[in-house]
Design goal:
The complex is a heterodimer. Chain A is of the alpha+beta class. Chain A contains 15 helices and 21 strands. Chain A folds into 2 domains: 355 residues, no CATH class; 63 residues, 2-Layer Sandwich (Dna Ligase, domain 1). In chain A, strands 3, 4, 5, 12, 17, 18, 19, 20 and 21 form a 9-stranded mixed β-sheet that branches. In chain A, strands 6, 7, 8, 9, 10 and 11 form a 6-stranded mixed β-sheet that branches. In chain A, strands 13-16-14-15 form a 4-stranded antiparallel β-sheet. In chain A, β4 and β5 form a beta hairpin. In chain A, α2 crosses α6 and α3 packs across α13. The model of chain A has no long low-confidence stretch (mean pLDDT 91). Chain B is built from 4 helices and 14 strands. Chain B is globular. The N and C termini of chain B lie close together (10 Å). The chains are: A alpha+beta, B alpha+beta. At the A-B interface, α5 and β8 of A face β3 of B.
Chain lengths: 443, 264
Amino acid sequence: MEERIQRLDLLQHTDTVNELLARYGVKFGIYKNNVFKEQLFPFDAIPRVIAHEEFLFLERGLKQRVMALNLFIKDIYSKKQIVKDGIVPEDFIFASSGYMAECEGAMPPKGIYTHISGIDLVKGKDENWYILEDNLRVPSGASYPMIARELCRRSSPDTFHDNRLEDNRNYADLLRHTMDYVNTGGHTVILTPGRYNAAYFEHSFLAEKTGAHLVNGSELRVKNDRLYYVTMSGGLEPVGAVYRRISDDYLDPMNFRPDSLIGIPHIYDVFRKGNVALLNAPGNGVADDKGIYYFVPKMIRYYLDEEPVLSNAPTYLPFYEKDMQYVLENFDRLVLKDVAEAGGYGVVFGSTMTKEQKEDFIALLKKEPRRFIAQEVIDFQDLDIMEDFFVIPRKADLRAFVLMAEEPLVWKSGLTRFSRNPDSFIVNSSQGGGFKDTWVLSQ
Amino acid sequence: MKKLTFDYYMQIDYSEAVSSCHFTIKCLPKETLRQKPENVKVRLSPDVPYSTGRDSFGNTQIYGWDDVEHTTFSFRITGNVYTGFDRREEQADEDLLAVFRHPHGLNRAGAELSAYHEGMAGALPEDAYEKALFLMHRVHEDFVYEKGCTDVETTAEEAWKQGRGVCQDYAHILIALLHRERIPARYVTGMIPGEGASHAWVEIEKDGFWYGIDPTNDIPVGDDYIKIGVGRDAADCQINRGIMHGGGSQSQLVKVSVDEEQAE
């Protein structure tokens, strides 16, 4: 594989592609010490290559997983059968910050909650794929491989002539269809918090590619139980679907956080009445909590009566006495995660703690067992990246995108993120990682 | 049977003109086995159109957008409520019961309230309803009624630590204790005679129905009580909520009256 890739003409163009990405504003904004900084999201030209058969397998597993997660959310905000049947304990639902009582009794158009899911996976050295986490709220990242592919094709057309891979430029069409499918009548818009958001590039790029209006909160207005787009001339045009890139908390100051300046007052009331589709639906946080992750394989068996195709990383819930025992006995080789944190924060490795830190942590763990999960450290495969003309190995994961309309569809690409630090397993872009294109071979 | 007449009036005065505002009002008495509302009228000023909807706890809310320039916003809700039929409120929605068994928002117990609860171990009766009454008596006894020392954002733990507060705090503290006993409990807003403002109490589930108990007055809810909204905590049942453009500083006035009428 390495040799074949070395020969890729594309690699000669890494700098050109990165320059173009910078020119197109492919950046990632982060706040550090309260200062907003935009940084480039470094692109590495060696693609992650997934064989045709292997991708078919991933596809099956991802569809199954998203199907079950969608059924779970629907169940939780209505009958709660999975709780009544004792599969998921109440404590992991109603005391979780992701559960929103406001969503009880509100059925989104066509019963779809998880329109756009970003599922993070890694491939272990044992050749098995493991699910790391499900992102069902506002997962970002599809735009990066989209534009990278476009620029790579432009810089090195031969590469794409010589390699048989799936075209990933259809993401915009898939997304458009996902939005149109649930549209209740009217325009489709992408709602952005504005240009100081980490993923603003993506919001504008997806709007351009799907032909949806890019709007901010002040351009939308609720009147007579309908949502309207306020035109330049002050006219009101109905909106039927909002791909909102702001979190539930900030969506509607009249229903959620009252101090939100980026939301639309009463938009949630319109949604409750079934007069607009929100993508993703509010309340999804109940299903992508790190504590709930443990239960996803059980959900697949419960709702679909199927065995899970893709495995979770082996996970323990200190909430259960037996698991707590295991965690205490094997503390040094486990990774511990705070269920309330995201973006690679709140993750600690037992092996790197001092004796004191360990004692403090165990005391906290015993006091709040519901707050943590423990996992075996997956020794995942390195991918090659280019640095100063050398090929070096780095840890990488894959965010696969699953879009749901009539049924779940897996985009034949994905965002491969890698850690730039040789000792780090944390690949999050908010912590300075880079990205690669993901090639799915077409045969 | 008792016939009660109620009048809930709320007025906000602004120092500068408000060019537009959004409002949500949850102030319509609910029909339950215990109470039957009749002739309920809503008046808004400025008189703007509004929508009606239902929140996830079944509370009726009216909401809308007011773009008439104003320096005073007010609403008045009047009507009658018949009581004395039953002690039960509505049937408990089995699917929502678990929601009312877990801590949320303002009703969370912290270290001190938990310690208080632990101190009662052994003294608590077996039966859930008896247990709730026991906890109500204890909270009533050990907490002091005093206005002005807590506000709408005070949590059960904070109120308990200072030992003083109003009906909202009594309700949050009792709910926190009931949750620790895994008894489904919810927060209620409503009106009682002689209070002049809205009142708050607690409902607990027993045999599939909700029953009101009032820790501030240490009694089960009686025929003088008019229930408005329910939720997990006070924030879920906020009677009026709004956002405005302009307005400067504001002052709010609330007048509530409940009187008994001779039923024909």
